[in-house]
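Quick board copy: two proteins, each given as sequence then tokens.
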Amino acid sequence: MKAVRYYGKEDIRVERVPDPELLNPRDAIVKITATAICGSDLHIYGGYIPTMQEGDILGHEFMGEVVAAIAKHRHFARETDPPGV
């Protein structure tokens, strides 16, 4: 899969990374269908988050389809069309 990775101030790259694995009972794998940046991403990009390490994967604003899960999840938001469509 592809991921956005941090490599330092103003150095963000899209790279291939290993596919995710289900490890914990509440894990789910989501096929991303839409994504966006967040204000916190701009802080990361600017180098203002000291806990970021080279190679960290970014992203937490997304929509998608659950394609695998260990346990039965019950509280997902469901969209049939992307917002604004």
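And the next:
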Amino acid sequence: MISLPATYSEIQYNGNQILQGDGTAIQKQTPYPNHALAIGKIDAISKNASPAKITLVVKYSDHVRIAYPLVINAKVFYANQDPTGNFDQYYGFISNAKITVQILNPNGILVQSFTGVTDNHGYYYQTFRIPDNSRLGTYSILISAQVGDSVDSKKLALFIQNHRQY
């Protein structure tokens, strides 16, 4: 039969002690005495990552006559999902992207502005009737899309022509 020191029974009940070779018990030391040890699942890691790049793709008529409608169609995609700028692509689009449209006359004066968001398919649609008193010439359409901190914008030329005379 082996006899054990009396401290052995203490160690059985107290996991904070270590039995030394001479039969004495000492307090167990943790490697980081002032830090709590947490074991568990990491839910998320926050880091300074750049925002996902977006691509704004626009279809419109670049020649419009006075008293006729200008139609603007825009779609917003993740840039890595639509690298070629394919308007008709059916995946990689972004819903709820903020769209801003500004129409400037040939002198750079704001004529009309619109804001909105893309639908569930990343699509934005806007019409604007060219007023009867509009100046002829080259207008600018400034259109931008924003998703969080990501922005893409385009500057498009619009040629306003006389209305048809019969």
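Board note added afterward: The helical segments are 7-13.
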